[in-house]
């Protein structure tokens, strides 16, 4: 993992319902560098279908550099985003579609964006760096950017030693085993579920790293004598 040097840790505030962000919180705490979760607001009670007064559930006294929105109720989620806009705090609401928020399809679908600090540099669309053996097997893997749930790191040991033709398919499958997204929740536009997307984005990341390693190896072999 790339170490991000800052004057102080990035302060992250998290909103969730009935522990909906716990898996990601654990990943951030284990793998994140240069950031600190300063507050977690967990709404643990049953909620009505419509909420006319979201301020009864969402406190407005939070401060931080970034808000992660794992709320499921749309009335609460929209209200939180409006609060963050007033406070000029960027908010990431993965899997949602809310104006004013950054809404990647999944947490591992977050692209690199300005203003997201250490979190945005370290978490989002995964990036790997690999070293290959002479017979095109994975010798070692370095995680450069990861899914906030930690799956990007957790599958590495199962990939080392595999042939480059096999490894991308295996990593896709192993990530899907770890992903907590609902496999039946398909996006009507893409026809893909978040679970499938998570597997595919890790597969693409590993393929890219393999291609780079093979190209560099080929250039070394064909270099000047």
CATH architecture of the largest domain: 3-Layer(aba) Sandwich
Encode the helix/strand succession as letters: EHEEHEHEEHHH
Could you tell me how far the N terminus lies from the C terminus, measured between alpha carbons in angstroms?
A: 35 Å
**Per the principal axes of the C-alpha atoms, what is the gross shape?**
elongated
Number of domains: 2
**Sheet with the most strands: spatial strand order:** 2-1-3-4
Structural class: alpha/beta
- Can you identify the CATH class of the largest domain? Alpha Beta
- Helical fraction: 25-40%
| Chain-averaged pLDDT | 92
- How is the main sheet built? 4 strands, parallel
Rg from alpha-carbon coordinates = 20 Å
Structural summary, described in words:
The chain has 225 residues and is of the alpha/beta class. It folds into two domains: 10-122, Rossmann fold (3-Layer(aba) Sandwich); 127-219, Sufe protein. Chain: A (Alpha-Beta Complex). The chain is 33% helix and 17% strand. The chain is built from six helices and six strands. It has helices spanning 22-31, 74-87, 117-122, 151-154, 167-178, 194-221; strands at 10-17, 35-43, 66-70, 91-92, 127-132, 138-145. The strands form two sheets. The chain has a four-stranded parallel β-sheet with strand order 2-1-3-4, with helices on both faces. A two-stranded antiparallel ribbon has the order 5-6. β1 (10-17), α1 and β2 (35-43) form a beta-alpha-beta unit. α5 (167-178) packs antiparallel against α6. The longest helix is centred in the last third of the chain and has 28 residues, at 194-221. The protein is elongated, with a radius of gyration of 20 Å. Residues 1-5 have low confidence and may be disordered.
């Amino acid at each position: 993992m790339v170490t991000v040097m800052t004057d102080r840790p990035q302060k992250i505030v998290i909103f969730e319902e009935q522990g909906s962000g716990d898996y990601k919180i654990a990943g951030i705490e284990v793998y994140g560098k240069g950031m600190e979760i300063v507050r977690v607001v967990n709404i643990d009670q049953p909620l009505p279908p419509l909420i006319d007064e979201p301020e009864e559930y969402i406190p407005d006294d939070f401060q931080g550099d970034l808000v992660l929105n794992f709320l499921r109720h749309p009335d609460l989620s929209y209200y939180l985003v409006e609060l963050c806009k007033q406070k000029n705090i960027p908010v990431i609401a993965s899997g949602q579609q809310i104006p004013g928020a950054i809404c990647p399809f999944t947490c591992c679908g977050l692209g690199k964006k300005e203003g997201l600090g250490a979190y945005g540099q370290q978490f989002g669309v995964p990036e790997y760096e690999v070293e290959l053996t002479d017979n095109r097997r994975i010798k070692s893997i370095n995680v450069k950017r990861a899914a906030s749930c930690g799956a990007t790191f957790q599958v590495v040991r199962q990939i080392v030693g595999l042939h480059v033709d096999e490894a991308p398919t295996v990593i896709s499958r192993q990530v899907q085993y770890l992903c907590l997204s609902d496999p039946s929740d398909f996006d009507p536009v893409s026809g893909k579920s978040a679970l499938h997307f998570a597997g595919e984005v890790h597969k693409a990341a590993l393929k890219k790293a393999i291609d780079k390693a093979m190209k560099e190896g080929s250039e070394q072999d064909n270099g000047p004598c």
